[in-house]
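User: Before I run my own analysis I want an independent prediction to cross-check against. Here's the chain; please return only the structure tokens and, at the end, one sentence I can use as a sanity check.
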Amino acid sequence: MNKRVFESIASACHETPMVRLRKIQETEGISGEILAKIEYISPSGSMKDRIAYKTMSFPVKIIMPEEMSKERRKIIEAFGAELILTPGCGSDIGLAVKKLKEIISTDPERYFVVSQFDNSLNPLTHYETTGPEIWEQTNGEIDASAQGIGTGGSLSGIAKFLKEKRKDIKNSKKLFKHKKNSNTDKRQCSKIPLYHAL
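Assistant: Structure tokens:
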């Protein structure tokens, strides 16, 4: 495990460790080595910290459905963001997007939308950080990479980096799928970013 001392909580968004999943190898009779990147030790417990670190400035407004988990809401508020809730559950993202557009229309020059779904910095962040970390941690001895997929940013960024290192590396999406919504308008960082969350 990386034993570096970080200068701030924001710096802890990178260089997450990898662990061997020996039990799965044994149980499933897999001859190769299986490694897992432990992203949950990032400040908010998610690899999304990487994109947040790359794109967000303060103050931040987060718009999300009111039925999202209380834990998620507490984390967002603990980081100092203003939380704006819209009616409905996690799948009612349309109302959050409608609220986002309403807020922007009040002062378009004040805001930009970070949007993890459409922001090119999402895959770029994983191309510049997660991919190189995986390559370094495996000493380039990697045959395949698999990620859960939400926005597709981690999958595409990691895959691009690894394919540039070795074309025969297989990349696969696994586990999760979310709807893609919203449009990104990346403007100057001096403006207040708005982020609609799933």
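Sanity check: Strands lie at 18-20, 35-37, 61-65, 82-86, 111-113, 144-148, 170-174, 192-196.
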